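Problem: given the chain below (444 residues), write out its structure.
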Amino acid sequence: MKVAIVGYPNVGKSSLVNRLTGSREAVVHERPGVTRDRKELQTEWNGRSLTLIDTGGVDLDDREGLATQIQAQARAAIAQADAAVLVVDARAGLRPGDHEIAELLRGAPLPVIVAANKVDVVTDMPLAAEFHRLGLGEPVPVSAAQGLGTGDLLDRIVELAPDARDSDPQDGEAVRLAVIGRPNVGKSSLVNRFLGAERVIVSPEAGTTRDAIDLPMTFEGRELVLIDTAGLRRQAKVDESLEYYTALRSRRAAERAEVALVVCDARDGVTSQDLRIGELAMRSGCATALVLNKWDMADHVDLDHERARAHKKLRLRPRVLTASAKTGRHVERLLVETLALADRRRGRVPTPQLNRFLSDAVATRQPPAGTGGHRLKLLFMVQTAASPPRFSIQVNSRAKVTRDYAYYLENRLRERYRLEGIPVIIDFVERSERRSTRRPGVAA
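Solution.
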């Protein structure tokens, strides 16, 4: 069952969503207008699965460009919902904006509950009575800050649509794709192009996206979940709490994704900040590719140079792709690459193939000789885990494994099995070591 949470700016919608879901996923800040896109969050009440759609504050009198996009996102949430909760500020009292949103909801074919928020003490509960005038039934006094009345609100939500079928839970095999990058490089435009719809707000204003938003889609018969994120600035510029929390959510998005597309502005080439974001994604365990977006406007960029620079600076050697969210050029290719990266991250290499690889690598470059002329011997190789891939190489002496030779094997492994941009872990295990006491070796 999907429930749209709507209301005037700064009435506490996101705080209420966080309270109802028992999370901190929705960005909360005292500044009005923090939430802009619609964000879906899951919760359960009395054995019933609910999807709460958090929306931006709706001021129907505001005709400014960004405000109209927020209004469109709220309308889209109402259109796809089974029920709606109109959140009002009980302390501020009934306002003209509340009447306008109530009128919008009365025209929608779905049940509506009025939640009178900011009733933080029992003695304030009579404040909710004023909202009978909206003509949407008995208001429910609640406090997002204290939790007062939230159980009653959830009871009412479940009662409104008892026959609505719960949507199936998200397929565990869906590929989770995080779209990350600096502010204003076209991340949201790219996500909208993937989805074929204006699903997230796009604006020339940097920092328009403030949340990490999960968006399910299907491509070539495969399920994906796109995670659109806020832009990541240099740490020195993240000096206010709102910037801090949006950046934190972007980092968490990378941590729960399998694949990350680091979106860059092709006109700038691959910048130092792009490289730092790529490192962040790969340290989080993501299979990663860099995307030079706005390629239609990059007349003088040397692609070979940008690729060579990325491979020199980033140890995992991710692919550097070009695309244009504006024209659609190569956008589909990005999704093809995403699925390929996910498959290689999840994949396993048969042991016989790995030992042939090991033999070829040794024949091409002999292992280093230790003190006394005793040379490192590579005896056996096997893959021990996937997602991300982890390998174990049995050696005669772990002390003889040099960092340089470990990097050589890692790079050859990437070349042989197309593991560019995929985190790889290689453990070097002495022959005498028991399996249960293996020490971690060189990790990518």
